[in-house]
Amino acid sequence: MGHSLIDHAVDILNKNDLRTYTVPTHGLYPFQWNWDSCLVALGQSYFDEARAWTEIETLFASQWDDGLVPHIIFHKDDPGYFPGPDVWQTGQPIPTSGITQPPVAGFAVRRLYDRAKDKAQAAKQARALLPKIDAWHDWFFRCRDPEGTGLVALIHPWESGRDNSVDWDDAFDRVPTEGVEPFERRDLMHADASHRPTQAQYERYIYLVQLFRDLGWDNTKLHDASPFQIVDPGFNGILIRSCADLADLADALGEPEIAARNRAWAKAGSAAMEALWSDTYGQYLCYDRKAGRPVDNPSVAGLIAAFAPLPQKRADRIGTRIKNMGEDVTYLVPSQPADTATFDGKRYWRGPAWLIVNYMISDGLAHAGQHDVAERIVNDSLSLIEASGFAEYYDPITGEGCGGKAFSWTAAMVIEFLTRSKELV
Ligand code: DGY
After folding, report:
1. How many domains does one find in the chain?
2. Which candidate in 272, 321, 365, 422 could, as Cys together with 374 as Cys, close a disulfide (CB 3.0–4.6 Å)?
3. Within 6 Å (CB) of ligand 1, which residues are found?
4. Residues catalogued as catalytic
């Protein structure tokens, strides 16, 4: 069983491979996406280490001078996607979007290095990436935490990866739609409309893009100018984990300054996360920086936080919470709890389970000694693949595969689950 699933996963990664980067899936996402690529590289390292490094190097070749690593790199034109480079207008040599995505690169590069068979080659590649990832982390704290709170804010839902989460509903009420240029969505040509964000959400996504574009994509201005500023515990947990991993890698490669800086960010971030903890829900919550209050919704963001090194009591409580959620769904981990009124099992980030999320949560919980729940998450993930193939995401109750098909990061995570169990203990 394990082998044929791995063969199938490798096949998907090869079919989505455009030589120097991998598309998430043909049609729906025809370019290079930031965190997709870093997670895909983990799967590629199983059968071609050199190719895995190339995936991340291609991404960082489009890093901006100010340190930002964009969420999409438009390597070539494709009329099947909206919004394309003509909407973003970021003026980069290879066109890119102008916002970022969850910073998994520090984590992924450390893992590639740790598992590399060709250590000398891996050290060379990792050493070249180290200052670039460090510069991206520095960009986050300079541009998205201007008051030095220790935690960074998102200024667009697409940065979180969780585009249409219930977490943004209140904040989106404050995002206007006046002046949004008429547009035609292309995602609905490739995916079922009932699995995707709504038109009202798309109008606000585009409003924010136009606002930032009008400010010349100047990151010294965008944070303060954005009507949408959310501190997401999952996003910050990923950043903290990547800072901690980059610090360890920098130590291993003899770069003490990079190590010290990243360790300090990780430490300050972990301490600041305490302010996002909710005893009522037994998990972290988002914080709406613009409104100055927590977001009263227990989404998966507060569970993804377990990917970061956290106080033991927090990791234990998150483990218990997920175990309890397992009674309401067939397959962990739902992106929105099934017992909330807003739960929608097929609509993108308002209910479905995602394998990349399951990977990060199970990794964090296993490190914290929560082996039972980590194992249930891994088993549920593999059951979803057996039931419904390599989809973008899954209905956590019926197991139906939703969104795009033959999905790269789903394939990569299957390889991880089936081959990397040693790293999860
Ligand atoms: C999309 O187009 O749906 C993406 O999630 C934006 O990055």
Report:
1. 1
2. 365
3. 71, 158, 163, 187
4. 163, 392
